[in-house]
Specification:
CATH architecture of the largest domain in chain A: 2-Layer Sandwich
GO biological process, one term (chains A, B): aspartyl-tRNA aminoacylation
Strand order of the largest sheet of chain A: 6-10-11-16-15-14-13-12
Largest sheet of chain A: 8 strands, mixed
Shape of chain A: elongated
CATH superfamily of the largest domain in chain A: Bira Bifunctional Protein, Domain 2
Protein name (chains A, B): Aspartate--tRNA ligase
CATH class of the largest domain in chain A: Alpha Beta
CATH topology of the largest domain in chain A: BirA Bifunctional Protein, domain 2
Radius of gyration of chain A: 26 Å
InterPro entries (chains A, B): Aa-tRNA-synt_II (IPR004364), aa-tRNA-synth_II (IPR006195), aa-tRNA-synth_II/BPL/LPL (IPR045864), Asp-tRNA_synthase_2 (IPR004523), Asp/Asn-tRNA-synth_IIb (IPR002312), NA-bd_OB-fold (IPR012340), NA-bd_OB_tRNA (IPR004365)
Strand content of chain A: 25-35%
GO cellular component, one term (chains A, B): cytosol
Number of strands of chain A: 16
Structural class of chain A: alpha+beta
Function (chains A, B): Catalyzes the attachment of L-aspartate to tRNA(Asp) in a two-step reaction: L-aspartate is first activated by ATP to form Asp-AMP and then transferred to the acceptor end of tRNA(Asp).
Oligomer: homodimer
Order of helices and strands of chain A: EEEEEHHHEEEEHEEHHEHHEEEHHEH
Chain lengths: 431, 431
């Protein structure tokens, strides 16, 4: 028995007169007298299939998986320009009635419905697009960095309790010891830079046991981590992130078209990303918007307003906020040379929301010990990390991008959960 | 002030007479009268730097990070063909005495020493190679599949307790509920195939709370997961894995040379991978080696012997073992049509060790329910997974490769831990 080779829907274009075997899902069935029209969908697109009289008795449930053989015909009636006149149909797997209608352009279902019924909602073109885009984003991220001499690394998510100190950590029993789930690969990526890899990146989940259920936060998300050695200063890191984002959005532009329009998503124009020191940003908020900021930081509203201010003034969706004070940054952050109360650190805001924290890190053992102690931390709890700095650790820095965060902002999704296949929040552990 | 642009060591070739600024680590210092020779290492290679009389007083500790400017000169004395006559040297970060010698061709340190001092051992060329190779492996995996229409997915590692049923699961308190760490993305990758992605892959950590401390097992490792819809049968999956491995090893061959020789690692010749049914394999073990096998499986010794047998008979490092009985395979495994006591499943052995489990999965709701019940499982505990099969789930299958496992076998490392940057076993949670 010779199997018929499957042809993908987008491969039917220009195949007029050819016999093809398609496999996919029944998106819609429409009857017109004794003829039925089946809109068939596979991962590459949709095609109209014409079922003549002989199929009149066939019961074809929407969203059933089928195999359909027939002849490709020219048509003026569909945007594809071709349709298939069905000759053989096999139902591979029939579908029960759907929890909600899938064939409309925009899905008419609430967020909980969408997330609880992922096995159905994923099938909708607009939702499918989110995850195709996410895959492309990661691929472009990886390609850019690999090309620049970065090595992809894989560091443990099960870490020794205390390694990052503090709050918002999930803990578990690991063969009688207390382990926690990594909040970031920070220590490990630094150690690998210092131990000769020089340039590393990681694409992996991180965990935050934060109780707040906001539209911008997930308790498990993919962190795109980058760390680079032998830098001159933290502007090298900002330049790297700027070039990286340019490259990723260029790839997105080349691969996606109409799908972006459906989301009113615009490719951001990135030349040089505007910068404000935190102090300047806080002054803008005070002077222009009459808003106070928390000490050493911006709040959610402040970020939004600064985003709007920069967009109006410079036309940029992005803005770097720099020079956060040492007291609001982690113990490994490099103090500023001129003003050691400040740090050589930055956040990157996109559309008024933080998508990145980054900066230069302390690279000498003595200075790092001092910094840990000044934060009230016991160096003994961090000895495996601190030891690494005794063996010629070069100046270095890095950043991390929250993957779901940037996707959700780019596509103007209402909630970051929509950019996660199976999001985890305080109430959601299933599916 | 204009910064000097850093030149990488491998960029010095052919730059005779040019001034360059190098950054890297001092691998070795050798004094010859009033002249010193510094072997400098960066991520691209090593170069000899000549320090003339004026540097006589300079104290340069091995493995310090330095910046060195000078003129590139031709030389017959090094394999690179060039050296650098030093003009300016800045010590960026000095090194303390090393826990073990790094400049020998093979590292003279025990496994525990290597793993406890990763920040030093990573710097050794041979060890560095393992992780460069790992990155390339993953990149080639991703490229091959993306090219074949697969979408990279990101599924949660925090899952509802019970989702995979049973033993060897790490559990934790997730906002008052019991969560567990995913043993595999099996259910999620299937759901995404069925929900329209058709072809997916994931590169992510998985967790096994197994107590045994063998040289082949890790408690956290990277699983390279693949799942494909609209297959004819499980041989489509085996063909896919064969082509995938061919492509990955071709990329490795093109990118690595001497490094592989150092490990006596040979690129496996893959044409068609030989197949044995489990029954045939057990018969070979009985007839040729007088060895009994456990019911429905091979043991470690059996895998080794079958690996050896196939290597001798077919010259292949790989062998598929097929048709495991239903009782030793998971509840989602597709029974064989001719003999439902067997399944359309396979393991792939490489050098006599299992690197993959795979097969076709059950895709109809009724059959799946039955299979869960026949294994004594309560379908209610798996409702979010089972529901997905009501909506036109196509025939599908997939497999997973243990990343560290295949790297360690390929490079003939003595222990799988050597292929993990920061391995996790029963005793090891730090660094």
């Amino acid at each position: 028995m010779t199997e018929k080779t499957r042809v993908l829907i987008n491969e039917c274009i220009g195949q007029e007169g050819q016999g093809v075997t398609l496999k996919g899902w029944v998106k819609k069935v429409r009857h017109l007298g004794s003829i039925s029209f089946v809109l068939l969908r596979d991962r590459t697109g949709e095609i109209q299939c014409v079922l003549e009289k002989k199929w009149a008795g066939l019961k074809l449930e929407t969203e059933s998986a089928i195999e359909l053989s027939g002849i490709v015909k020219k048509t003026q009636q569909t945007s594809l320009g071709v349709e298939v006149l069905a000759d053989e149909i096999t139902i591979l797997s029939s579908s029960a009635p759907l929890p909600f209608e899938l064939s409309k352009k925009t899905l008419n279902a609430g967020l909980d419905q969408v997330l609880n019924n992922r096995f159905v909602s994923f099938r909708h073109h607009k939702i499918n697009t989110i995850f195709k885009l996410k895959a492309l984003f990661v691929n472009a991220f990886s390609d850019f960095l690999t090309d620049k001499g970065f090595t992809q690394i894989f560091t443990p998510k099960l870490v020794s309790q205390g390694a990052e100190g503090g709050a918002n950590v999930f803990t578990l029993n690991y063969f009688g010891k207390e382990a926690s789930l990594a909040q970031s690969p920070q220590f490990y990526k630094q150690m690998m830079v210092g131990a000769g890899f020089e340039r590393v990146f990681e694409i992996a989940p991180v965990y935050r046991a934060e109780e707040h259920n906001s539209s911008r936060h997930l308790n498990e998300y993919i962190s795109l981590d980058v760390e680079m050695g032998f830098i001159e200063d933290f502007r090298d890191i900002m330049r790297l992130e700027t070039e990286l984002l340019k490259s990723i959005f260029k790839e997105i532009q080349e691969s996606f078209g109409d799908e972006l329009a459906e989301y009113k998503a615009e490719i951001p124009i990135i030349s040089e990303i505007p910068e404000l020191t935190l102090k300047e940003a806080q002054k803008v908020l005070k002077d222009v918007y009459k808003k106070d900021s928390p000490v050493g930081d911006l709040n959610t509203e402040g970020e939004k307003l600064i985003g709007r201010h920069i967009k109006e003034k410079h036309g940029s969706d992005f803005v770097f906020i720099t020079h956060y004070p040492a007291e609001t940054r982690p113990m490994y952050t490099m103090p500023n040379k001129e003003n050691p109360a400040l740090t050589d650190s930055f956040d990157l805001l996109y559309k008024g929301t933080e998508i990145t924290s980054g900066g230069q890190r302390i690279h000498t053992h003595g200075q790092l010990l001092q910094s840990f102690e000044s934060k009230g931390l016991n160096p003994k709890d961090f000895s495996s990390y601190l030891e690494a700095f005794q063996y010629g650790f070069p100046p270095h820095g890095g950043f991390a991008i929250g993957l779901e965060r940037i996707i959700y902002l780019f596509l103007n999704l209402g909630n970051v959960r929509e950019a996660s296949a199976f999001p985890r929040d305080c109430d959601r552990l299933i599916p």
